[in-house]
Amino acid sequence: MHKLWIIIKSEYLQVVKKKSFLVGILLTPLFMVGITVVPTMLAQKKSASTEKIAIVDLDTAGVGERFAKGLEEYRLEDGQPSYGVDAIYRPADTVALAELQQRLDSMILDKRLKYYLIIFNNVENTDSVFLVGKSFGFSTNSRFERKMSHILAEMRLEKSDINLDVDSVLRLTRSMDLIQKAPGGKERDFFTLYLGGIIFVMIIFGTVIGYGQILMRSVIEEKNSRIMEVLVSSVSPFQLMAGKIVGLGLASLTQVLIWGVIGAGLYVFRGNLNITADIAGILFNPVFIFFFITYLLLGYIMFSTLFALIGSMVNTDKEAQGFIFPITMTLILPVILAAYLIQEPDSTVAVVLSLIPFFSPTMMILRLNFIGADSFSLANPIILEAFAGLVITALTALLIIWLTAKVFRVGILMYGKRPTLPEIIKWIRHG
Amino acid sequence: MQEYLRLENITKSYGDKVAVAGLSLSVPKGSIYGIIGPNGAGKTTSIRMIMDIIAPDSGKILIEGAEVRRDFKNNVGYLPEERGLYKKHTVEEIILLLGEIKNCPRKELSSRMDPWLDKLNLLEYKRKKVEELSKGMAQKLQFITTLIHQPKLIILDELFSGLDPLNIELIKNILLDEKRRGTTILFSTHVMEQAEKLCDYLCMIHRGEKVLDGKLADVKARFGKNTIQIQMEGDGAFMRQIPGVEKVSEFNNYIELKLSEGAIPQDILKAVTDKVTVSRFEIMEPSLYNIFIETAGVRPSEVTVSAGGGHA
Questions:
Q1: Residue B179 confidence (pLDDT)
Q2: Subunit contact A3:B51, Cβ cutoff 8 A
Q3: Distance CA B78, CA B176 (A)
Q4: A–B CB contacts, 8 A cutoff, strictly below
Q5: Are A238 and A364 found together in one domain?
Q6: Which helix H or strand E contains A349, and what residues bound it?
Q7: Signed CA dihedral, A109, A115, A116, A117: sign only
């Protein structure tokens, strides 16, 4: 036990004392914010100058004019109108329309025009409107959609025999935003759920890949520097492997802990930072935290043992790359599938995938985040599945540890040629 | 003499290749014991089995009459053939780490460290990183890490490999000091001349099998005083024709002659001085090299002759 502790301490200090550890602590959150929040913010960014649009109105009821007037309400931050209607065209026939469209297209390519809108005849009944442009912003799209629906509704209303003023009818038909809540009453917002899930998966991914590779490199380095033989003449190969895994695991926990403290600090001193109840709901949900930490630990143990196995078999980082790729793919799969999982976190495919050993840690965390659970009640299928996943992951981890211990013993003293599969099988048999 | 380490019929094969075939040997307590043989003879495999790094296919390893227990490693100082240390650790850190995993208390390590570093001229490098040391200094540092926990048994694989003559002298003297404290020392080498100068007991192995073993003096006596060493100027090729010379072995700066039975050394001297100028003429026991060639029945090209370190 004493020796194990010395190895743990040595491995822990080797990582924590490095400058890269501090850099990782600071850079990783920035990176995560970078890949998740920034693109979203950019997409939502309002344009800074007035966008020129043209309207081609093939209808005769004055929809174009109404639309142009309706756009006047949108203003940029400096008070300038968001949209400037260049002209409203009324081509006489299809030949003229074709000519006009050609002209407008070239204006868009020359950047003299941002969009043009074609309102077809009888739009009132057909809803037939096109928006032509090189690129479309989220907000412009939804504004135009809303404005046009509004105008068409008004027109239909005016022609109908309902004897009410327009405003009250519009109030009657007003569309609303659906607020999503989990059973139990917590508010849930699609965007937060998606982002939250991805962030937690990224933490697992980053920890496993990051520390797994550190572990693998340290085994390779010890092999190459030949200190390995001195080490195993004092401690057993298993103690060495376990010491490395635990030592680096503690280093990664230190990192997560520091992030947690930073996060909690930001939350306490958030001031006018707008943190929604959803994020708070995830961060301070003991059920989720329990599963997150257990999956993080088990996943780390399982994958880092695998990395130790790889390290003991190869001689250079380069040789290891071929083995690392499948591990990376296994861990990144939930991120690829997240868009599907968030819609159907309960589907058979989702359940089965999240119970497959190597997928379990990340998949289950993603599903837990999407479905949400407030208590450890086994009546809730996701809790039952999450526990089943833990057992499966733990058993797989044990199997890998057993296997690795056998290969590790032999592999760490093998220099030179990379072993072939039959050789490895022999090591396992005789180990 | 009391026995410290005993190997009984140890065998290890890798696939079809037999690395060690039924090796038995007995290392007396407080002796310097040399395992000698050419590269690939099975020395490293045998030592790794003693160190419990690899398991023998069959046979027993006994320490003071009892089967090896795991904590026995704490009483052993092991210097493997392939040497290396953590590059990023400081000299001090590496000594503490490698000492602590031998269960040696940190305090004792700290108090023993400076005298050791001083003895090997490394004291000023105490807080330097290993990567800043020269190769020779790193070797000496590794030697310290092998001995600092005061092991009862020191095992040195290819002891002389990579050491310059000055350091070889230094390390030999330290080993003799250790022997005086009652430590048992087991080393392996393929450089027979070096072994001859250091060991009390020896075991020669070839292709995984023991060729002969015993006390150095006894082994030599067994082969009689039928060897002559000659240092001289000129070409010694003619000596093969001198009657009574059975075999000629040419070394870097001397020639060794093995005489047939009944040959008289004086006659040989006369025959030699007729042709060349002799600066040294000595009747002696046969060298381990010749004993090995003779007993193992190998071609001389299979065995490294020259001293001075670098192994093939």
A1: 92
A2: no
A3: 17
A4: 55
A5: yes
A6: helix A348-355
A7: positive
The candidate with the shortest Cα–Cα distance to B190, out of B312, B31, B294, is B312
Kindly state whether residues A362 and A380 are assigned to the same domain: yes
Could you tell me if A237 and A319 lie in one domain? Answer: yes
B16 touches chain A (CB under 8 A): no
pLDDT tens digits, residue range B66-122? 887 777 888 999 999 888 888 888 999 999 999 999 999 999 999 999 999 999 999
Residue of A227, A233, A234 lying closest to B85 (CB–CB): A227
Q: For residue B98, list chain A residues with Cβ-Cβ distance below 8 A.
A: 230, 234
**Considering CB atoms only, which of A227, A236, A413 is closest to B84?**
A227
CA–CA separation, B221 and B219 (whole Å): 6
Any chain A CB within 8 A of the CB of B14? no
Any domain includes A7: no
Q: What are the pLDDT digits (tens) for A201-222?
A: 888 888 888 889 989 998 998 8
Closest partner residue to B103 (CB to CB) among A3, A14, A233 is A3
pLDDT value, residue B306: 44
pTM: 0.72
Let me know whether A177 and A197 are in one domain: no
Contact A333, A361 (CB under 8 A): no
Q: Kindly list the residues of chain A whose beta carbon comes within 8 Å of any beta carbon in chain B.
A: 2-3, 6-7, 10, 14, 222, 224-227, 229-236, 410, 413, 415
Residue A23, in any domain of the structure = no
Identify the H or E element spanning A133: strand A129-133
Question: Which of B53, B86, B103 is facing A229, going by the closest CB pair?
Answer: B53
Beta bridge partners of B201: B33, B215
Does B72 contact chain A (CB < 8 Å)? Answer: no
In a domain, A243, yes or no: yes
- B100 touching A (Cβ < 8 Å): yes
A13 part of a folded domain:
no
Rounded Cα distance between A259 and A199, Å, is 13
- In this prediction the ipTM stands at 0.77
Chain B interface disruption, residue of A227, A415, A420, A430, most B CBs within 10 A: A227
Q: Print the domain residue range for A106.
A: 51-181
Q: Which of A131, A162, A181 is the last residue of a domain?
A: A181
Question: Do A145 and A167 belong together in one domain?
Answer: yes
